[in-house]
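#lab-general

N.A. 3:47 PM
ok so I finally got the sequence cleaned up, no stray characters, all 366 residues accounted for. can someone with queue access submit it? mine expired

B.Y. 3:52 PM
send it over

N.A. 3:53 PM
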Amino acid sequence: MLARCGLPVPKGEVAGTPGEARDIAAQIGGPVAVKSQVLVSGRGKAGGILFADTPAEASMIASHLIGSTIKDTPVRCVLLEEKLDIAAEFYASVAIDRDARRYVVLASSEGGVDIEDVARDTPDRILRQWIEPGVGLDEPDAERMLQPLAALDDGLRSRFASFIALLYRVVRDCDAELVELNPLVQTASGDLVAADARMILDDNALYRHPEFEERSLDRSEDTPREAEARRQGLTYVDLPGDIGIVGNGAGLVMATMDTVHHFGGRAASFLDIGGGAQTDAIKRGLMLVMSKPEVRAVFFNIHGGITRCDVAAEGIILALREAAIRKPLVVRMMGTNGEQGVKMLHQAGIEAHSDMDAAAEAVVKL
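B.Y. 4:20 PM
back already:
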């Protein structure tokens, strides 16, 4: 995607087997970087990026990486790229600043694996410029932004500025929420190359991008429960704790996770049944969460609006009747038909609260 917009990138291809890795390395014809393809940060420090001088060595490294896990994420394929002769590393990104309601450009002369430390410890070393949506960003704007970076001579500053202007074009053309180059490197020959990149596309804009359809449907990183939830039309994420979290609305579910953490618990799942969920979807969602072996208790948080509390209560009661595996359950319920829903739950012997803190504390005790 970056290359199509004119940004120099390393030669490379993805391999799913050690044999494919050997063949790709032979085609590249020199030392290669073997990069684990996992959706986590810090993969290099975790041993997920290794280097090979020969095709045989690339095959051996690929056999070691494929099938391993990086930060609990399975490695199913690796990216083979030409190894660059790096003289300097920089950082550049264009992202949405939601508070400012516009894009912001970030740039630094200290790119690489420790950019988060730079941002935390010496934030003055990262330049920021907000983009007026109706005006955009061109190379002269970017060059003025980069003036404070003393590490750049005039020629390098001009080329860096052209990269930033192209990044903004990529963001606009692809409806991206983030495009990040880390590192953007200067090679020993003086060329600038996007050595690694990360992009987040706006799912709501995918209808405008049929070219992304295959990638958007690739859910190889899903756990079996995540895949099943997707088939059922539920928004579900597996997490490493032992308390299942269910709610109606992503913001409420995230707030519920925070509240449980405040009282000493850890979420085992994130399940948003969505606004307007009916009895069957609520039943299936709760049964899915209870089926996870690591879940020792479930917190079901309903703020009735479009989703009525009596409908939610009916779905919860049916789930507990039909589930092959039942887990201790605490419900927080208030809003539309809240009194009726709470009464239904109490009659079924299910603990219900109107206060979120009290419910979170109760589920942690369970």
